[in-house]
Amino acid sequence: MPSRVIGPYVLQELIGTGSLGQVYRATDQRTLAPVALKLLPSGPKLGPTTTSRFLIECEALAELSHPNIVQILDAGISSGTCFLAMELIDGLNLREHFSPALPKAFAGSPSTLAATAGSGGAGELLEPLDPFQLFDMHRFAEESDTGWCNTLSLDKALSMPGMTAWRERNEPDEPAATERALTAPPAFLREPERIARIKEAVLQICGALAYVHSRGLVHRDLKPSNIIVDSERRVRLLDFGLARFLANEGEALSERGKIIGTWRYMAPEQALGEPVDGRTDLFSLGATLYELLSGRAPFDGKTPSEVAHMLIEDDPPLLWDLDPEVDKPLARVTHRLLNKDPAWRFQTAEEVADQLQE
Predict the structure, then answer these.
(1) Average pLDDT of the chain?
(2) Taking each helix axis from N to C terminus, what angle separates 328-337 and 278-294, rounded to the nearest 10 degrees?
(3) Catalytic residue, candidates 136, 155, 173, 221
C-alpha cells in the first residue's frame, strides 16, 4: 500500500483497481470530507512536461458537469504519484448491480453460498442450489483481464455440501447435457424487470457519452467496472479523459507499447492503434450490453492475444442463438454497436438513445 498520506488526503482502504490505477476511500484533511482518491500508475520518473499535461487534463475534466459523470474535485502530484480526488459514490459497478441478488445470510462468494446451503443455519435455502446455476452465478460475478473466471468446475459444484439430493434428481446422463447446462444463459438474465432496468441504465450512459463526445473527449475504457449505479439507480461514469492522457503519456505512466484499455471491451480500431472517436466508446457500450444480456463477453478468449484476434477477426455469437428468449430489440441494438466498421455502428449516443426509446 502507498504512503497513507497523499497530498492533503489520508488513505483509508482500497475500494477498486483497474488499468488506470487504484482507487482508495480517503479523507480530505482540510475539510474532513470523504473522497474517492485515484492513484495513477507511475513510471520511474515523471518529467515536467508530463506533470504539466496531467494537471491541464484534470483541470479540463473538472469542468465537466453532468448528472451521470462522477465529479472531479482535485488533482495533483505527491512524491511522484499523480492523484485525482473524486466525489465518493456509494453504489455498485454495473456488473454487480445486475448480478442476481443473493440472500443476505450468504453475502460471500457463490462458493460460500453453496457450502452453507442445507447446513441448517440462519437464512437456509429451502432447496439445494442448482450447481449449474451456481456455476453461472460464479462465472457472472467474477472477472479477469481476459474473460470470465471459470474457476468453479461443474464437478466441484456437484461435490459441495447439500448437492446430493440434486444429483439424485437431476444429474445429466450424457456429456452433451452437461455442456448445454454450462453454456445456456441463466434465466435471471432475461427477467423483464431486469431488462427494463438495463434499458434505463443505458439511456443514462448515452446521456453522459453524448455530453462528453460533444466536447471532443473519448473515454477509451468504457466497461462495467467504470460505471457505478447508486441505490437510486442513478448511473455515474468514471475516468473520462484519463485513458487518453495515459495513451499519450504511455512511456511515462504505463508499460512501453501497452495499449490503454481493456481488451474485452475494446473496439477493433483501438486495438489496431488507429484513430478513435465517439463511435469507439459505442462499441465498448455494445460489449458491455452483450455481457449483461448473455452472461458472457462477446470475445471470450483465454489470453489477451486470443481476445485480440477474436476482436479483430471474428463476430460474436448472435445473442438470439445463445438465448432464443433474449430481448430482441435490445439484442439488435447490441449487435449494431458491435459492428467492426465504425461507419455501420450507431454514429452517436443520441441515436442509440432514440432507438431504445422507440
Answers:
(1) 75
(2) 140
(3) 221
